[in-house]
Amino acid sequence: MSWFLRKKQNIGDNIPREMPDGLFTQCPSCKTVIYKKQFEENLFTCHSCNHHFRITWEEYVDILFDQGTFVHTDTEVRSADPLNFVDTKAYTLRLNEAYQKSDFPDALTVGYGDIVGRHVSFACMNFGFIGGSMGSVVGEKFYRAGKRALTDKCPLIVISASGGARMQESALSLMQMAKTSAILGELADNGLPYISILTDPTTGGVSASFAMLGDVNIAEPKALIGFAGPRVIEQFIRKKLPEGFQRSESVLQHGFLDKVVHRKNLRQTIHTILQHLS
Amino acid sequence: MATNYTLEFEKPILELEKKISEMRELSKNIDLGEQINELESKVELLRAEIYKNLTRWQRVQVARHPDRPYTLDYCANTFTDFVELHGDRAFGDDPAIVAGFAKLKDKSVAVIGHQKGRDTKSNIYRNFGMPNPEGYRKALRVLRLAEKFNKPVICLLDTPGAYPGIEAEDRGQAQAIAENLLVMSKLTVPIIIVVIGEGASGGALGIGIGDRILMLENAWYSVIAPESCSSILWRSWDFKEQAAESLRLTAPDLSSMGIVDHIVTEPVGGAHRSPQIMFESLSNLLYSEINKLSTLSLDELIAARRKKFYAMGVWNE
Questions:
Q1: Partners of residue A209 in chain B, C-beta under 8 Å
Q2: Would residue B316 count as lying in a domain?
Q3: Do residue B33 and residue B168 come from a single domain?
Q4: Per residue in B275-298, pLDDT tens?
Q5: Number of structural domains in chain B
Q6: Does B247 contact A at CB distance below 8 Å?
Q7: How would you class B279 by CB atoms within 10 Å of its CB: exposed for 0-12, middle for 13-18, buried for 19 or more?
Q8: Using omega within 30 degrees of 0 as the cis cutoff, is the peptide bond preceding A28 cis?
Q9: What contacts 24+ positions apart, CB below 8 Å, involve A15-20?
């Protein structure tokens, strides 16, 4: 949930734009040195071990959408502090810090555009904003993206990356799981396709609601996908977790994903699936 | 059912009660009837006073009281003719969720609820009320049966959370909960949710979407348990009281957030003190709620349910 507080980073916040502007970078997974040009050509993945770095919604828009077609909407929906939540810090302070740290409007960006000539409604989570946690804003913007799909009679494409529900909005955050799932029920009633793309990490209230509800569920390689986070499980059962547990490839094997797709093939895969579904 | 389990803040009551029983002993020789009556009414006043001013953390403790009525107690007392159904038809049967059909006065209804155990042995059997995916899938099966046979559904929420284990993850805990949320949001029969004890996060919500959300006076419902919240945000287990305050997890809190429709009054001292009163008042309440919902057309019912959840949330724009 609040990965942002962790001192020990088992889930890093390594978005490429925060990387040094040098000519090369090192893969955190296999330690291979990657040249920047090659890195960008590979859409911020490691050519050697396939490690997918976390990227921003802008980069996903560049990768998926026909050039110049994407329109970013609902940019002014901002988190309130309805419960006056205070832990070691006030929620409002955390929000301000998150705004300062990034350009993200909140943990979800929504809009619409064309993918290989097909109009789609789109939502993409921002893990860099309070761990991609889902509060009222994420729920409301997701709902609006769903409504757009209903109005425009078009598919909905969602990219998830989240530690789960946002604690600072308590039960209101929890209810966003219901809100997002309910709008997906309307899409289903209207025969509109919903493709869910799960990226590293997708856990908690987000995996237990809209992320797992795709007509087709696609994940990027080696993404952490699960309900309870690995640290919680390890503490709870006091056992070491098996290698590869809760990673895309294992989740695929257990039958909860349709495909694990390299970022380079994401656009084409979505296009092919939508050809069949719409 | 009684375990004589005393909560810390009930100690003053316990002391008075001890005094009363000592006087009873004495009154075999001398008449102390008047004094005993006086002390007894003092106990009642004290209990009412204490329970009127419970902190949020104290309410969490009442919600977890080992004598508190659980789903099966309601099945046996609020309802009649309960028939329990087992299994998800895919993997197994999860004792942490019970489901079946029962009579609420003259109406057949589906009942689904989390189930805790009362002692070590039954708690291990019930996995402390923490469901596995097959529990949510059993619930889903009974939800679909209710839809098929046009019976209203009553869901009783009382769980410390969905089970965080390796097998639960491998069998798709997240998917099992998610599927229920979607299906319940458009199920074509009335659904009434009652938070009877602990409403911990997605594990509770997994059987928690409905037309009416009722919450017992001393139940709690939140995105996370106060202890876990303390451990994450304060990086220590010691701030559970503050976490409970910050999380605003009581029935009045959820009512003011627009999530809970009705707070169900408990007998003074908690549902476990006079369970029979609790069982009956819930029966009457559920019956009248079902009657109200039955006047809606199918389209109105689903539209209103969706609207209810779409309205949840607070943001600036």
A1: 177-178, 181, 202
A2: no
A3: no
A4: 999 999 999 999 999 999 999 999
A5: 2
A6: yes
A7: middle
A8: no
A9: A15/A53, A15/A54, A15/A55, A15/A56, A15/A127, A15/A128, A16/A44, A16/A53, A16/A54, A16/A55, A16/A59, A17/A56
Residues 6+ apart with CB under 8 A from A83: A91, A168, A169, A170, A172, B246, B247, B248, B257
For position B298, which CATH number holds?
A: 3.90.226.10
Tell whether B159 lies on the interface with A, counting CB pairs under 8 A: no
Examine the domain organization and report whether B219 and B162 are in the same domain: yes
| B27: number of Cβ within 10 Å | 13
Q: Are residues B31 and B90 both part of a single domain?
A: no
Domains and CATH numbers, chain A: 55-277 (3.90.226.10)
Range of the domain at B18: 8-53
Across the interface, of B174, B186, B224, the residue whose CB is closest to A167 is: B224
- Residue A105: both structure tokens together: 């409007």
Question: Does one domain contain both B265 and B136?
Answer: yes
Distance from CA of B156 to the nearest CA of A (A): 17
What residues of A are in contact with residue B313 (Cβ under 8 Å)? 135-137, 139-140, 172, 175-176, 179
- Domain for residue B106, yes or no? yes
**Residue B166 confidence (pLDDT):** 97
Question: How many pairs of residues across A and B have Cβ atoms under 8 Å apart?
Answer: 211
B202 → chain A, closest CA residue? A205
Res. A2: pLDDT tops 70: no
Among the partner residues A80, A232, A245, nearest to B315 by beta-carbon distance: A80
- Residue pair B19/B39 in contact (Cβ under 8 Å)? The answer is yes
| CA proximity to B215, closest of B281, B269, B261, B247 | B261
B169 to A179: CB separation less than 8 angstroms, yes or no: no
Residues B46 and B66 in one domain: no
Residues 250-279 of B with CB under 8 A from A: 253-254, 257, 259
**Nearest of B302, B10, B133, B245 to residue A183 by alpha carbon:** B302
Would you say residue B1 lies in a domain?
no
Written as six digits, the tokens of B72 are 């099966």
Q: Would you state the pLDDT for residue B91?
A: 97
Averaged over A204-232, what is the pLDDT? 97
Nearest to A208 among B174, B253, B315 (CB): B174
Q: Which residues of A touch B178 (CB under 8 A)?
A: 177, 181, 207-213
How far apart CA B118 and CA B99 sit, in angstroms, is: 19
- Do residues B239 and B93 both lie within one domain? yes
pLDDT tens by residue, A174-184: 999 999 999 99
- Pick the residue from chain A with its C-alpha nearest to B254: A171
Mean pLDDT of B189-203: 98
> Do B219 and B118 fall into the same domain?
yes
Q: Does residue B230 lie in a domain region?
A: yes
β B97-104/B107-114 pair status? antiparallel
Question: Which of B182, B228, B248 is closest, CB to CB, to A170?
Answer: B248
Tokens (6 digits) for B156: 């009783």
Cβ separation of B181 and A182 shorter than 8 Å? yes
Same domain for B201 and B150: yes
Locate the chain B residue with the closest alpha carbon to A168: B247
The closest alpha carbon to B109, from B136, B85, B82, belongs to B82
Amino acid identity at A221? P
Q: Which amino acid is at B8?
A: E
